[in-house]
């Protein structure tokens, strides 16, 4: 399938994606099948390579991708997290990158689609990281249920989040960050990485970081491209929390 057809299929699937978290054509489950077929069990690198290959040759996936994934990797290494929290699991790709860059970290990934959670768990199990990467089905905007679950069932508490990766509903970037701030889960030096700040865009989140530059946050804006192509520009924001102990 040529690149134009793959991107056309992606555009057609976006209405389903916004509603359900999946494109509606089975590509997410097919990606898990592809990883299980083509990657050696227990090999994170092979699993990531299989996902990238599927996204390039079979059907475009809305994960962080290779170019922006390298920025995430570098941030993870700087944070050296004991606990990483991710908002937006999709097929589990970015959680795999976090687990690879921080082999001793525990990774919690929040995903509103139970179907995506199942795909991600299949991939994590095949890659050998299911013992330290957990998907929590829910959303931080559900009135506190998922936040309470993260705290009560998964041990997230004051100052415990060393790295936060935000890659879900762009309209919820700022509100979800503020919910985490209000819970006191960040500490001085925690890193927050936000994908897709230009496309689809998170203007309120970007404005918040600019307004609090040097007081609550120090932010670097990385100019990059939308995943799996080199024409559409994007922004990844990497922000260091400056308050707390």
From TrEMBL:
Ranges in a coiled coil: none
Record GO biological process: methylation
Top EC class, one word: transferase
EC number: 2.1.1.6
InterPro entries according to UniProt: SAM-dependent_MTases_sf, SAM_O-MeTrfase
Domain of life of the source: Bacteria
Protein name: Catechol O-methyltransferase
Species per Swiss-Prot/TrEMBL record: Mycolicibacterium gilvum (strain PYR-GCK) (Mycobacterium gilvum (strain PYR-GCK))
């Amino acid at each position: 399938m040529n690149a134009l057809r793959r991107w056309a299929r992606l555009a057609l699937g976006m209405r389903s994606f916004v509603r359900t978290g999946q494109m509606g054509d089975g590509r997410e489950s097919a990606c898990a099948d592809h990883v299980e077929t083509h990657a050696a069990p227990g090999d994170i690198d092979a699993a990531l390579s299989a996902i990238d290959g599927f996204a390039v040759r079979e059907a475009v996936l809305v994960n962080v991708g290779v170019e922006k994934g390298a920025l995430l990797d570098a941030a993870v290494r700087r944070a050296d997290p004991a606990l990483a929290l991710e908002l937006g699991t999709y097929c589990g790709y970015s959680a795999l990158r976090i687990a690879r860059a921080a082999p001793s970290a525990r990774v919690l990934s929040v995903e509103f689609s139970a179907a995506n959670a199942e795909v991600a768990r299949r991939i994590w199990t095949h890659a050998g990281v299911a013992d330290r990467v957990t998907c929590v089905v829910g959303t931080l905007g559900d009135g506190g249920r998922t936040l309470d679950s993260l705290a009560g069932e998964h041990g997230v508490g004051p100052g415990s989040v060393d790295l936060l990766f935000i890659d879900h509903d762009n309209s919820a970037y700022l509100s979800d960050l503020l919910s985490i701030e209000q819970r006191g889960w960040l500490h001085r030096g925690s890193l927050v990485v936000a994908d897709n700040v230009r496309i689809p865009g998170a203007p309120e989140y970007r404005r918040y970081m600019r307004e609090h530059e040097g007081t609550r946050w120090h932010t670097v804006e990385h100019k990059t491209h939308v995943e799996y192509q080199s024409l559409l520009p994007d922004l990844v924001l990497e922000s260091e929390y400056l308050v707390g102990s």
